[in-house]
Task: structure prediction
Amino acid sequence: MQTGIIRIINLRLRTYVGFNPEERAKQQDVVVNVEIHHRVDRAARVDDEVAAALDYKTVAKAIIGHVEGGRFLLLEKLVNDLLDICHGHPAVSRAIVTVDKPHALRFADSVSLTLAWDERDNPTWSECRHESHIRPLSHAS
Result:
């Protein structure tokens, strides 16, 4: 399996993020960085068709729409939402999202949060297995 990495670097957006009254009253700058690992076998070797590739423009537009159209109390919620957008494509095996809030602290350039998702740690429902020694009918009320 051949893996490619798409990076969206320093996507500058504005949104409402924070729980203090001044943060809730006006939009703030945020900087989004995304790294998406995805399988590229079909797109790179076989098909050479757009449909076989991960369309980074579609991902970027979804991120922009979500950030600019939303209000977030916590940076954690914002980053997790963006992570969900990034790993929504079936070819994605790993995604990492970092969001920076420039000048959030007086003597710091930025405060950031990074979250990662990996398919090895998050199996799909069809890959999950449930085992029990209890026979359901014998314990039904």
Remarks:
- Helices lie at 21-25, 41-47, 56-69, 75-86.
- The longest strand covers residues 3-17.
